[in-house]
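Open question from group meeting: does this chain pack into something compact, or does most of it stay loose? Before anyone orders reagents, we agreed to write out a predicted structure and look at it together. Recording both the input and the output here so the notebook holds the full record.
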Amino acid sequence: MPASNVVRRTLAVIAALPLLTLAACGYGSRADDGSSAQKVAAGAEKTDGLDSVKIGYFGNLTHATALVGVNKGYFQKALGGTEAKYQVFNAGPSEIEALNSGSIDIGWIGPSPAINGYTKSDGKSLRIISGSASGGVKLVVDPKKIKTLADVKGKKIATPQLGNTQDVAFLNWIAQQGWKVDAESGKGDVSVVRTDNKITPDAYKSGSVDGAWVPEPTASKLVAEGAKVLLDEASLWPGEKFVITNLIVSQKFLTEHPKAVEAVLKASVETNEYINAHPDEAKAAANAQLKVDSGKELPADVLDPAWKSIRFTDDPLAATLGTEAQHAVEAGLLEDPLLKGIYDLTLLNKVLKAEGESTVDDAGLGAE
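Structure tokens returned:
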């Protein structure tokens, strides 16, 4: 497996693709109102002398490390007298833009926009400093039209966006079946219909698509409408693990404020430990934060199955990021990127050692 790969079309074209929109509603972001986050403790010492650290994430279950950490106050506690300020995003490109402009310092994001942001800046904008989540992507279909994997041929299957992480994964799976599809148009032995996750359930109900290769909770929303899970993408990966969410930081902020970055990492590790030790309580906390951020929580018939399919891990699963990029190359959407240096796991491994946990690997893609 090549350890590095990136954008073949021009960077301008790739930048126009809203990579890894997850279950988002579109572009844009909004500042958190702080209604559920713990406030700065009076008299507490500031971390790195900072008044605040600006943290971004998606209002999505695959970003539950952030959701739970915000809801339970882990980040504010770790930052002491420095205020944790939050901003909720709907798409990867807008979060990368915010990171580049200094509107946020640290953020949870998917692999495709992280790769895009890194390579577009010639390796100068960001570093991936931790993992967060694995899995949570499924092929769900209309059981009346599709009963077996072979039945997918000739059908209309939705993915979130041209070139996004799920789109690339589906194109790769199609190729493995020996079927042909033009990556750009989505036409061929299978019709790949690029559809925003917010309208995919309606497209399914109307019969415009016969199924979808989508992340959670969109997959479980379709199941609640009568769809059937035909394939869990995790089953295609060694150990059923592949990166779906990373933690990134501005290189400038990492250089100037390592203590603040370490504090956020410590809180992230503690949050994942809590999630894995208390899954039901963590699930409730994540849903409560979704309600704060979006005004609406997920119903149990969507929340429960979606939550079960996501694994929360500090390991960035770096080798799978390289594989995902290679899949995009093979699909004809990417060319060899220079991913060397995209990871800096130094502070994460320091935190993990202090917690008595095993350190993690950057698959040869770490900073010198």
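Observations to bring back to the group:
Residues 145 and 284 are 35 Å apart (CA to CA).
Residues 258-277 form the longest helix (20 residues).
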